[in-house]
Design brief:
This protein is α/β, with parallel strands linked by helices and 314 residues long. The protein has a domain at 2-209: Rossmann fold, CATH 3.40.50. The protein is 44% helix and 10% strand. A 5-stranded parallel beta sheet has the order 3-2-1-4-5, with helices on both faces. Strands 6-7 form a two-stranded antiparallel sheet. Helix 1 packs parallel to helix 2 (41-55). The longest helix has 18 residues, at 133-150. The relative contact order is 0.16.
């Protein structure tokens, strides 16, 4: 039996693996990371350092600092029809994957080859709060295909980092995967560690929490970008990461022009009776006009649940 830990670069999936490894010390544990190629640089640092701590491995010779990474953005003017990410960024990640594989083969670092914007462009569909082609293509389907070839449905267990506040997501996931023949577990559900949360345990381990959390993001996925996030998330992004926000807004604008429709991730809430698109450019104008208006986060309201959600794009 192998216990596969689906790790996202988030603190929750790290703690879930830690709890499960303590509960099953004599079993083989492996780690699966589906990379969107759009993660925050410090997410990769945390991914490597966190797993190395769990398996007691010295990775000092390959552990990068966030400042070591090139810019993930494509700077200057470009056509989204031929967009393929920043080649320097992707070459750096390819070398990092190879280096990490040499010293930490327990981690399988999966890459479909595109980032979310490439998926939106290729499908001519921008994801939203209900439908997430990016995660479906780059994470769920890609990971499922890998498991079908490399794992044993009859014996292996897939562990996910779902905490108590997202138990409903686990039940949906477990039902779907059980129907497909897989065994899924959420090690944090019903545990003391799950109730306490990961940050206490990271501090005890001497591991710095990922910087997106330090910037008040609720999740550490996709570089803080998320089509399922709401107004509160993007307000925080506007102030905490203005360069990233501006890049998202530009890509949204380019995609709308490419598709030929005014597609947006956000929805206008000004009139509860009429929903209409709200671009990141327009949302930024509203925040600048009324900087005193603050959206409040609610637990789970802006986090990344797309890894276990299954709405299908048209």
């Amino acid at each position: 039996m192998t216990r596969y830990h689906s790790v996202s670069g988030g603190a929750g999936s790290w703690l879930a693996a830690k709890v499960d490894m303590a509960a099953h010390p004599n079993e083989e544990h492996r780690f699966l990371f589906a990379d969107t190629l759009y993660e925050d640089a410090d997410c990769y640092r945390f991914l490597i350092e966190g797993i190395a701590h769990l398996i007691d491995r010295d990775v000092s010779n390959v552990l990068p600092r966030a400042s070591d990474f090139p810019d993930y953005r494509v700077l200057g003017e470009f056509d989204i029809a031929t967009y393929a990410g920043n080649p320097e960024w992707r070459a750096f990640l390819a070398q990092l994957r190879a280096d990490v594989a040499e010293v930490m083969p327990e981690l399988t670092w999966l890459v479909e080859g595109r980032d979310p914007w490439e998926v939106f462009r290729d499908r001519k569909f921008l994801g939203n709060s209900r439908i997430d082609p990016c995660s479906k293509v780059l994470k769920r389907d890609f990971l499922a295909a890998w498991l079908d070839v490399n794992a044993d449905k009859a014996a292996d267990i897939i562990c996910v980092g779902i905490g108590p506040d997202e138990a409903h997501r686990y039940h949906v996931l477990a039902q779907r995967q059980m129907a497909a023949g897989w065994q899924y577990e959420a090690p944090l559900l019903g545990t003391f560690e799950g109730d306490i949360g990961a940050f206490v345990y990271l501090a005890k381990a001497g591991i710095e929490r990922p910087r997106l959390y330090r910037k008040n993001y609720i999740h550490n996925n996709c570089g803080g970008f998320c089509i399922k996030a709401g107004h509160a998330h993007y307000q925080n992004r506007f102030y905490a990461d203005p360069e990233r926000y501006a890049y998202d807004a530009m890509m949204e604008r380019k995609l709308a022009e490419y598709i030929g429709k005014p597609v947006t991730m956000l929805t206008d809430r000004a009139n509860d009776n009429v929903k209409k698109p709200l671009s990141l450019d327009e949302f930024a104008e509203r925040m600048l006009a009324k900087p005193q208006f603050i959206f409040e986060y609610e637990p789970g309201s802006s986090g990344c649940g797309c890894m276990v959600d299954y709405e299908e794009a048209a």
